[in-house]
Task: structure prediction
Amino acid sequence: MSNGTPPARDALDNKANQLFAGKVVRKDLVRKVKVGANVPVFVLEFLLGKYCASSDELAIQMGLQVVNDTLANNYIRPDESAKAQSKVKESGKYSFIDKVKVRLVDSDYWAEGVNFNNKFLHIPSQYVRDYERLLMGGVWVQVDMRFETDEESKGKNPFWIDKLVPIQIATFDLDEYRNVRKQFTTDEWLDLIVRSMGYEPGEMSRRLKLLFLVRLIPLAERNYNLVELGPRGTGKSYVVQEVSPYTALLTGGTTVANLFGHMSGRQKGMVQIWDVVGFDEVADLQKMPKEVITTMKTYCESGTFQRGQEAVAGDASIAMFGNTNQPIDVMVQTGHLFAPMPDTIRDDMAFIDRLHFYLPGWEIPQMRNELFTDHYGFVVDYLAEALRDMRKHNFTEIIDRFFSMGAHLNARDRKAVRKTVSGLIKILFPDGDVTQEELAEILELALEGRRRVKEQLKKMGSFEYYQTSFSYTVQDTGEERFVGVPEQGGRDLISADPLSPGSVYTAGVTSDGTVGLYRLEVSVSSGTAKLRLAGGISGAMKESVQRAFSYVQAKKAELGITRDLETSDLHVEVIDLLGNRVEAEIGVAFFVAAYSALRKAPVSPALLVLGDMSVQGNIKPLRSLTEPLQVAKDNGAKRSLIPIENKRNFLDVSADIMEHVDPVFYGDPKTAAMKVLGNL
Result:
């Protein structure tokens, strides 16, 4: 394309130009101009839409010339403020493009031209009333300014704003937008929206396209809480920063007053003014006052917050972006996926529980040239206007047409899933006309994004979050479909495949109901009946293994393993499957694993061994059965070996668990081993 020939147009380009004439623009032009001008995309596309929204190559080239001239003559670069001020003085009047902010000093409004670099511009108060955003972070505008000094001011503050036009589409017709949408297939529309964001869908899987669309949900859905953590360079904050004039991206810390308004109520906060408030580097929240997090927690739950005496409401969605510094598989194995968050949020489970969707940023490729499109997409402020208009509409009930949600989704999960579905419907099907198959695809993505949040809460070990087997039921057939998370999840940490001899799954539970899930691996090498423990086995776990080993040594003849034991050393390793380091007493599991290793007989698959023992072989029951069995079921266990003393606790176990996990009761270690060892 370097030879200057325009990119070949495809059928979608022709259709978009025909049906949305004047509202689409060729996205490679945006990049061409953007290289030389540090203005947000919606400002550039405002100009390109004005002068280059055509399919005629000659008209485009002439339009580009006008855009470049406008940017050269009317856009103030930050280093050219003195030149711009002099132009206004010499000509007496001058028009230009800049970002204008307004503040109240005593009883006067003063405007600031950000690149014009003057904080004392006179502005008619009418504009401040019409455009509240001038007071909150500022608006990109076309400004007509005059130079005037009077006797009184003795030449001080001579710049006066005569006219101010925000760079945003003036009118938007939702009915027209919905009607024209009907003339596109779902696939065409999906590709057009992805192109409107500047990307080329031809290079992407369908799943990736939908993940890109999730980034737009905060623009279309009120009070939507999105988090995206992923590697650097994947364009996480691009949508909030560049695509819409109705969004504000915070870099660095902020205050409660800035986000939620002043106590006096004299100035509104960002969540009342903007449609989306984004946090670019979520790690920066670390520096913020604790009060920011506590107020945000209330706001993320209900869209309201307390300022002074009264409760105040806001519509802004919250989008948080952060960088992961480790590969995803490492994060999954060693901790949880909120690890990159600042600890003010990471350790606050109630805050994390309010997030509606966790977008897996590691699935989004780093931005390379071939991912950007040379085709037509909507002028971004037209798209932003469409999504903004859709905020007034509500599609949260649309799921109920065909589906009902599974038992594991609590009220907060359901709200999150409904809001995600509603947002995606607004983007893809603005008239709400969606087939059962299309809705199922959106619903599954929504369930997955919420489940990813819940899985991490579960990993943090809190029992109230253990129900993560998300599902939905198709109403007309009664079929229940389960939805997992691709990177891992509550699925199958306990493998249904046979394990090698010496390996067993076991669990422990603390007094507050937190469960530790482990795979215990005992291997045999030639030696002299020594116990060799891997690093990391300590405290109560180490003591329980040593007690069980003493029992093995004392009973070796009775167990028929004297020769095997005396010529071998036992190496013990314990893999912490949930990564939450729960103190667990796992004597019986060690006994079964050691016996299995010495007899070279594997235990039956998908089995969980519970219970501890004394040196004499007396069985110690668990504090509680419900939590370990729930975790076991969620992670793929089919049977569980349970101390007979816990039989009375079995009455507390839910029918759902009993249906999936068969109990096998035992009263002494040898019986335990005999009941679960295969081929003996």
The first strand starts at residue 24 and ends at 26. The radius of gyration is 32 Å. The mean pLDDT is 85. The CA atoms of residues 149 and 155 lie 5 Å apart.
